[in-house]
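Lay summary. Proteins are chains of building blocks that fold into shapes, and those shapes determine what they do. In this project we predict the shape from the chain. Here is one chain we studied, written as its sequence of building blocks.
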Amino acid sequence: MNGIDPVKHLRELAETATRSADQLADQIRAATAITRETIHAGGTIFFCGNGGSAADAQHMSTEYVVRYMRKRRPLRSIALTTDTSILTAAGNDFGFDEIFSRQLEALGRKGDLLMVHTTSGNSSNCLKAIEAAKALGIRTIALTAKDGGKVKGMADICMVVPTERTDRAQEIHLAIQHAICDVIDEEVAR
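And here is the predicted shape, written in a compact code that computers can read:
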């Protein structure tokens, strides 16, 4: 076979996953605890991100509303990335930086949780969403990579995946989110 070996991708992913588990164990457990508290108190989990991270936000919101691995009651979750009318109106009227914060201001309340996916840690609309969440008393969890970017100093919990690669970061972000969801799923299904 000429060119890139596709198996190398999986080996690099496994190495990144191992480093992430070693380096982020405390943050992952803390994020799980906050997610658990939010769900048990009847709060809503909001997800946001751009591009592939927007798809991950939608994916994770679905896991909570529909189900992950077990049959159980639906859980309160909203992806702030899905309503094209709101996204385009907010983008047009206020600017792209406000597309998530505007929705959070309308829908969020104290006791909710905002999960932000930003591989750079510098996405303006994600940073504005965190600012809006803080003003509302909503806790924040960020998943990022590289050096963590600006989000590192803003979120209540910031998980910086040890990679410079956007694709690896997104793959690990989703794995971390699935790990958290698995815990919640199992507890709620009891």
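What the prediction tells us: The mean pLDDT is 96.
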